[in-house]
């Protein structure tokens, strides 16, 4: 599982991205999620849910995914 960088800590049920403080414009929740079970406020990408999103308590240790600026690369194939 991987942390995605979003949470609903400020307003329950309104997930925002940590970096931009903007609400989600796209969501890929696993069926039945988010369910806020036991106060779950952070978003994870969960392998057991076919890599759909799940909410989870923010204090659970996970790897994380970082956002980076896109770049263009020139690719030369052959000679």
From TrEMBL:
Gene3D superfamilies: Mannose-Binding Protein A, subunit A (3.10.100.10). Coiled coil: none annotated. It comes from the Eukaryota. Pfam families: Lectin_C. This is Perlucin.
């Amino acid at each position: 599982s991987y942390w995605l960088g979003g949470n609903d800590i400020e307003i329950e049920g309104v997930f925002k991205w940590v970096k931009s403080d903007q609400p989600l414009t796209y969501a890929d929740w696993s069926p039945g999620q988010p369910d806020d079970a036991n106060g779950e406020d952070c978003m994870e990408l969960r392998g057991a849910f076919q890599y759909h999103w799940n909410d989870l308590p923010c204090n659970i240790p996970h790897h994380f995914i970082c956002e980076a600026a896109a770049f263009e690369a020139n690719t030369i194939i052959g000679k």
